[in-house]
Design a protein that fits this description.
globular; mainly beta; 2 domains; about 230 residues; 3 helices
């Protein structure tokens, strides 16, 4: 997303919901992967440092992959119904947020012990994916570093420019909305001038096409006082 000043804002959009990882080793079609749902204890008194992960095996012919009422959901195109098996492979695992180590969840039912999926999850639990899991854990556990904005590069800022919450606090989860099969990011932007009496927040809506490209759709202004 390009700013008025020409500065590029790098996005790591994440609303805390389920997401799909693909098996990059496979060169055949259809492509196979897993839908992952992260479950994090929100008890402030609990000192656990694990994230539970439920996974369902998927392939790229499935549409509308997601989770509703704690159940995996998807739909099949009419042309694929006769040739596409209903996904049955599932996994229930835990990840240590400090080491990234992945293991089967204690007490998980036998039908969620798929070792092939466990191997893939172990391979994927590094880099961007591990940081995503850690960021979600910090957000739920209220361990977000609210001083992180002080370490950002603000040389681009000039009086009158609004600041995106995502840029000031990149560890926070984002507002991602689904509408008619498309994903939209609601980017809330604020005036940071302490001497300004304005009470207006701008929300810029962008359609998310992939991890690195968004398309601006329009902006609304909200007067907080009214």
């Amino acid at each position: 997303m390009e700013r008025e000043s020409g500065r590029l804002l790098h996005l790591r959009l994440d609303d805390g919901g389920p997401f799909v990882v693909w098996n990059d080793d496979e060169q055949v079609k259809p492509r196979h992967g897993m839908l992952l749902q992260t479950l994090i204890c929100d008890n402030p008194q609990c000192e656990c440092r694990q994230v539970q992960i439920r996974a369902m095996a998927v392939e790229d012919r499935l549409k509308g992959i997601g989770v509703k009422d704690n159940k995996f959901t998807f739909r099949l195109l009419e042309d694929d119904v006769a040739n596409l098996a209903i996904p049955e492979k599932q996994l229930y695992a835990v990840t240590d947020v400090d080491t990234g180590e992945v293991s089967l969840a204690e007490g998980a039912p036998e039908n969620e012990h798929n070792l092939e999926m466990l191997r893939l999850l172990k391979e994927k639990m590094r880099g961007h994916m591990l940081e995503t899991v850690r960021r979600r854990w910090r957000a739920v556990k209220k361990q977000i570093d609210h001083e992180q904005w002080r370490r950002q590069d603000w040389s681009w800022w000039e009086p009158g420019l609004l600041v995106s919450w995502t840029e000031a606090f990149p560890d926070d989860l984002n507002f991602l909305l689904e509408y008619q099969g498309a994903i939209f990011w609601a980017n809330d932007m604020y005036c940071i001038n302490p001497g300004c009496p304005c009470q207006t927040v701008l929300i810029a809506f962008c359609q998310v096409h992939d991890k690195s490209r968004v398309e601006e759709m329009g902006t609304v202004a909200i007067h907080l006082g009214k």
